[in-house]
TrEMBL record:
The protein's Enzyme Commission number: 3.5.1.28
Listed GO MF terms: N-acetylmuramoyl-L-alanine amidase activity
Protein name as catalogued: N-acetylmuramoyl-L-alanine amidase
Source organism per UniProt: Streptomyces thermocoprophilus
Keyword Oxidoreductase: no
Residue ranges occupied by any N-acetylmuramoyl-L-alanine amidase domain in the UniProt entry: 27-180
Keywords noted in UniProt: Hydrolase
Classification via InterPro entries: Amidase/PGRP_sf, Amidase_domain
Length: 196
């Protein structure tokens, strides 16, 4: 169990991992905390946006859309590998997911199959949305994949977590497919190697 990093510590962790970070508006105070607690945090969740165009994607993740107000994550990782910070605190990214998965993340054990939606993930996960159409054909540039790895590793490093604290949305909530285009097993192996 961990308290969320302060916004400054979050930013510092990302920069120390070698990431290019852009601060968007008043990201430090843009959140959904009025809808419920943020924390304790237990892991990092990776998503794809199903959008194209970096500026449009960042704006959408910051503001949200009808029926799902922003922020939709903490950081948006665009195709060029830049991390755009759009919010900090509770964000509308994880939704309801499987409590068995959460227990496995906390214990840093292999994940069970997600088969229910009974636990608030927005409370317990940092979220990174990654610019990609999510159709399995849109490429993931090397700079972007490296940034996804570094961003997740930065948070794990600061909290003392292993790569098993990083999950995809598809591992949390039944019916979700993101991120599509690489496997979470592959990403966790890269994060594990980076954390050595």
């Amino acid at each position: 169990m961990a308290s969320p990093l302060s916004a400054s510590a979050f930013l510092d962790a990302l920069r120390k991992e070698g990431l290019t970070v852009v601060e968007v508006g008043d990201w430090r105070h843009h959140n959904r905390n009025h809808k419920g607690a943020w924390g304790p945090v237990h892991g990092v969740m990776i998503h794809h946006t199903a959008t194209e165009g970096s500026a449009r994607t960042v704006e959408l993740c910051r503001k949200g859309y009808s029926g799902l107000p922003g922020p939709l994550c903490h950081g948006v990782i665009t195709k060029d590998g830049t991390v755009h910070l759009v919010g900090y605190g509770r964000a509308n990214h994880a939704g309801l997911g499987d409590d068995d998965v959460l227990r496995a993340v906390i214990a840093e054990k292999a994940l069970p199959h997600d088969n229910e939606t009974n636990t608030d993930g927005n409370r317990h996960f940092y979220g990174f949305e990654c610019e990609n159409l999510g159709n399995g054909q849109d490429p993931w540039p090397p700079a972007q994949l490296a940034a996804v790895e570094k961003a997740a590793a930065a948070i794990c490093r600061r909290h003392g977590w292993t790569e098993r604290s990083v999950i995809g949305h598809l591992e949390w909530q039944p019916g979700k497919v993101d991120p599509r285009g690489f496997t979470m097993t592959w990403l966790r192996e890269r994060i594990r190697d980076r954390l050595k």
